Structure formats: structure tokens, C-alpha cells
Amino acid sequence: MGKAASGKDTIFKRLVEQTAYPLKTVVIYTTRPSRPGEQNGVEYFFVTEERLQQLRVAGTVIEERRYNTVHGPWYYFTVNDGQIDLEKENYIMISTLAGYEQIRAYYKEENVIPIYIEADNKERLIRYINREAQQKSPNYCEVCRRFLADEEDFAEEKLIKLGVENRYWNRNLDSCCNVIQKDMEALLG
Questions:
Q1: What tens-digit pLDDT sequence spans the chain (189 residues)?
Q2: Spatial separation of the C-alpha atoms in residues 30 and 23, rounded to whole Å
């Protein structure tokens, strides 16, 4: 977990590739449109709101988040679709604090370990703006909305309430990944 542009996607990819213990990834679902270069079933499963409603009715939605974007509401959610079998594998996924809370309730607290990535606000904003500039139609209003929303979504009192103690400063990507890998290996070893 981490605020937008904290480096969590890059760290996630490195951990999947380099950790001594194999980690399976979980692909979550979203109702937002795919961005250029994204592939269905790789970054996300891209579905309609109607499909989300079908999954809700079937009782397979583990956790769900709604974002009121400048484009309208977008949902991100995890589904009990057979990707996760805690008896056989260890998993890693990216989520929000609200998503983590729901996943922890579903799979039991002792089975879910949070990794929280922190980064300097100025650095995050610069990264976020630069990343958005690469889009076909950059939307800086959405960057601002999400950047500000993260301050509330990841407020210190919420992190404390949910017992998020595993926090890693992403000042240097290599060092941050190395510390996380060592901590993960100690937990999984």
C-alpha cells in the first residue's frame, strides 16, 4: 500500500521478480477504462459496472472501493475467483488501506501482512505529474483529486488503527526493496 506515486508498483514488480520466496500475484478488477499499454488480466480485469453487480449478487466480491473521479465513479475490487489459495501459496497484491482492511477481515488478520510504502510528498507529486504527462490525454485535475484524497485515505490515525507497522521509506528504490525483501524472508522463512 501507499499513496499515489509512492513507488509501490515498481517495488511490487521487483519483489515478485527478486524475492527468494515465490510470491503469486493477484489481479484485481476495475470498472475504469484501460490505459494505453494495459492488458486485460495483466494489470487488472477490466469489467463493466453490470459485471460488478453480478459478482456482488454471486457473493464473490472480497473487497471493493469506489472513487468519484472527474470521469465519474470507478470501482476497484478483489474477487474470490480462484486466484488465491492460502494453503498452497504466498501472495502479494497492491491495495488501498480500505481494501487492506476488507481483505484482512476476509482472510483473517494473521494471514495478511501489510507493507506500507512512504515517500516525500514533493517527490510523489512530481512523479505523478510526470507519469500523467505520458498519457494520451493527461488529466491533471484527476491527479490533484487523487493526490489530495490520499492524505485522508492514508491518514496516520487510520494506519495506526489498522496496525500498519511495516512501513518503508522509498528514498532510494534499491535500498527500500532490499529492506522489504529481508523483512519478507524473515517472515516467510
A1: 999 999 999 999 999 998 777 899 999 999 999 988 899 999 999 999 999 999 999 999 999 999 998 889 999 999 999 999 999 999 999 999 999 999 999 999 999 999 999 999 999 999 999 999 998 899 999 999 999 999 999 999 999 999 999 999 999 999 999 999 999 988 887
A2: 22
Long-range pairs for 49-58: beta carbons < 8 A, 24 or more residues apart: 49/75, 52/77, 55/29, 55/79
What is the C-alpha to C-alpha distance for residues 145 and 28, in angstroms, rounded to an integer?
A: 22
CA angle, 138 then 139 then 144, to 5°: 130
Q: Which amino acid is at 15?
A: L
Distances (CA, A) of 105 to 7, 62, 75, 83, 98: 26, 9, 20, 18, 11
Say how far apart CA 152 and CA 137 lie, in whole Å.
Answer: 27
